[in-house]
């Protein structure tokens, strides 16, 4: 039997690459959508003409990195952050709606920024999204752009910070922490919704393979932690102290308050629907997760 094709928008990135490896191991044929054509990538212009034949599932994990510290938070950069998510998500949804041989499912990874940052509110997938700040407004447009016509299932995974050695927050933090220069951000009391990269990619695969899964899923570990608790767990896994707090005003100054809020503020988010579906986490506790990626050099 020919293997099933999964098309991944942004398949060259931190999440997309790992997802591609797992799917490949599970005998799927993986094709990326990238700005750069290559042997196993098609371009966004090609997607405008439709989906490749026999596409079984479509996933979107494309998006300009928000925490690219080399880029100032200018109106142009904000537009890029937004369009790279909304336009790519819409381009794949349009291609799915136009296609004659429909894929079974469209999985889009968005973020917990959909929920208003708070130290008191508690959110699960049934909680309303408020759309007040830049990120929650972006989330509303992003998820709206994902709409596909039935019978294609739509699964939107609102991911917390994705933790893994090769990208995202850990790649940025490991050096300072390794040299004992780590510490909590601001008061450290803000919640830090998180998920290990293995679990996020397993959850995407779970959504592809289980026909009863649809709608919003919170892509977070069930263990709710604060930034201060994360700092302690990561420093402990690296056997380093982490006493140097990063003041909130410094981040606001360096990154711009609107962007710095991704680090200085947080949300208490639980994965109620994910657990109801029976998904089993590999890393449901932050200490175990940190032990997996707290190493400076690649593991043999
Ligand atoms: N990492 C996290 O902690 C996290 C948490 C929550 C949500 N997410 C969401 O998950 C998605 C992927 O995150 P990631 O960490 O894997 O990001 P990443 O490593 O930066 O990769 C994203 C991919 O998106 C493509 N891309 C970048 N800029 C683009 C642009 N202007 N237009 C079109 N495509 C562009 C790139 O692929 P090509 O160069 O091949 O085009 C890149 O490989 C993002 O939408 C992000 O918001 C991530």
TrEMBL record:
Q: Which Gene3D superfamilies match?
A: NAD(P)-binding Rossmann-like Domain
| InterPro entries in the cross-refs | DUF1731, Epimerase_deHydtase, NAD(P)-bd_dom_sf, SDR39U1
DUF1731 domain: residues covered: 246-291
Q: Which residues does the UniProt record annotate as the domain NAD-dependent epimerase/dehydratase? A: 6-212
Tell me any Pfam family this protein matches: DUF1731
**Which PANTHER family did the record assign?**
EPIMERASE FAMILY PROTEIN SDR39U1, SUGAR NUCLEOTIDE EPIMERASE RELATED
NCBIfam families per the UniProt record, alphabetical: yfcH
Q: What is this protein called?
A: Epimerase family protein SDR39U1
Q: Which organism is it from?
A: Leptosia nina
């Amino acid at each position: 039997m020919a293997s099933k094709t999964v098309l991944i928008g942004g398949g060259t990135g931190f999440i997309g690459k790992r997802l591609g490896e797992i799917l490949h191991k599970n005998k799927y044929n993986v094709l990326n959508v990238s700005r750069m054509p290559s042997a196993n990538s098609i371009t966004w212009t090609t997607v405008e003409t439709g989906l490749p034949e026999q596409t079984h599932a479509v996933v979107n994990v494309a998006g300009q990195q928000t925490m690219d510290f080399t880029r100032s938070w200018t109106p142009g950069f904000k537009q890029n952050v937004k369009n790279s998510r909304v336009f790519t998500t819409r381009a794949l949804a349009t291609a799915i709606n136009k296609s004659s041989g429909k894929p079974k499912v469209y999985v889009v990874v968005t973020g917990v920024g959909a929920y208003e940052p708070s130290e008191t509110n508690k959110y699960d997938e049934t909680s309303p999204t408020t759309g007040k700040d830049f990120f929650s407004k972006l989330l509303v447009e992003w998820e709206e752009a994902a709409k596909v016509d039935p019978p294609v299932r739509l699964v939107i995974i609102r991911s917390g910070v994705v933790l893994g050695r090769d990208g995202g927050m850990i790649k940025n933090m490991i050096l300072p922490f390794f040299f004992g220069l780590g510490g909590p951000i601001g008061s450290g009391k803000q919640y830090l919704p998180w998920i290990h990269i293995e679990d996020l990619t397993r959850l995407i695969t779970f959504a592809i393979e289980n026909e009863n899964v649809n709608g919003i899923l919170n892509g977070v570990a069930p263990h709710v932690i604060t930034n201060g608790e994360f700092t302690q767990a990561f420093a402990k896994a690296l056997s380093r102290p982490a006493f140097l707090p990063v003041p909130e005003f410094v981040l606001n100054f360096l990154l711009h308050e609107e962007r710095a809020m991704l680090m200085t503020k947080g949300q208490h988010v639980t994965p109620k629907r994910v657990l109801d579906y029976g998904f089993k986490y590999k890393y449901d506790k932050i200490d175990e997760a940190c032990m997996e990626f707290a190493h400076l050099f690649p593991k043999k």
